[in-house]
Each structure stands twice: as structure tokens, then as C-alpha cells.
């Protein structure tokens, strides 16, 4: 699978940010597949930058558990760790279930309309089979609820733990083009917030966040080499 490079990013920011963001995006979207060996030389040629920003990016990605570096083998895209993903999902479900109840009281009409617009954009992604953009909009949907309730730091905490779980979510989207359940759940969450029904909102978001958990065994069987 070929790596996707946004050349324009290099013009807008520091080279090290460009390298880090490019590598992370391609790891998360599985263009750089779990278990793949990558060398500094390969990345220098691929991204047309010096070794220094490559090394800085690899250090940061190692800290985020997306890269594993060993003296004998060099750098390898980390395999997806189901135990880490499950812990992340547990934290996310616990926190988002509480926050979505707050959303039923705190979000105003304009914020609810923004959520509805995000779901409409997700429906366009379904028609175009653009799983990468659908994932981005999915994240924006959940982030909007969090930020709307004044829980930006809580969202940041969730993101710190989410790397393995997010790769499973993206793998699910890439492996199965039927996203109707996801979209229906998002519609249900918005409807419950709009109707100020915290019990229904909590139920909907729990069902939504457990969807990948239900499907993870099928994903593991289909993509065995991606998992630890």
C-alpha cells in the first residue's frame, strides 16, 4: 500500500511537524501496515527530508505506541494491541456516557444543529465510500459533544489512550462498507440530546462505542497479522 503525502503541509509548518503528521496519518489509516519494517533511509527517500526530523518523528510515534524500535530490527509499525484497545474503549465509554448526559442539558440549538450537519457529511462519505474522512467526522462528532460540555481536557485524555482502539475502528470502516448502523446510532444520539433525554442518550452512546467490540473477533480473523 502506498503512503499518502500532503506536500502542502510542509509549506505551512515546520518540517518535523510535516513528517510526524504524515507518518501518523498513514499509520492510523493502515497505509503503513502493522508489523511493517521501516528504515530511516526509506523514509528519507519517501518524504524527501533529512534524517533529523525522521528521527524526531519516530521518537514521538514510539511514545504513542505506534512504532516499536529495537537495536536488532530497527523501527517496526506496532501491531494492534487488543488489551490496550479494550482499556481505551472502557475509559472512553465511561467518560462519554457521563458527558452525553450533560449534553442533554448544556448543548444549545446551534450546537445540536452542528451535530446534525456532521452526520449529514458522514452520509456523504458513505455514498463516496471515503472511510478516512468518515473517521475524521466521527471523531469531530464526539469531540463536539465533549467541547460543548466544557470537557476539552477529558477529550484530550481519551485521545492519549486511543491509538490502538482508533486503528481497530479505521480497520472496521475499511473492511466493511456498510456504515448504516454507525450513522443510525449518530442520528439517535443527536435526537436524544435534542429531546433532552439523558437515559436514551447514554444508552445510544454505549451501544455505539461497543459496536467495534462486537466485531473485533471478525476483524482479528480477517487481519490476523495486524494484531499482537
UniProtKB/TrEMBL annotation:
One Pfam family here = FCD
Q: Which UniProt keywords apply?
A: DNA-binding, Transcription, Transcription regulation
Domain named HTH gntR-type is located at 13-80
Please tell me whether the keyword DNA-binding is annotated for this protein: yes
Is Transcription set as a keyword in this record? yes
Q: InterPro entries per the record? A: GntR_C (IPR011711), TF_FadR/GntR_C (IPR008920), Tscrpt_reg_HTH_GntR (IPR000524), WH-like_DNA-bd_sf (IPR036388), WH_DNA-bd_sf (IPR036390)
Stored SMART domains = FCD (SM00895), HTH_GNTR (SM00345)
Signal peptide segment: none
Q: Which domain of life is it from?
A: Bacteria
* PANTHER family in UniProt: GNTR FAMILY REGULATORY PROTEIN (PTHR43537:SF45), TRANSCRIPTIONAL REGULATOR, GNTR FAMILY (PTHR43537)
Q: What is this protein called?
A: GntR family transcriptional regulator
Q: Which organism is it from?
A: Paenibacillus aestuarii
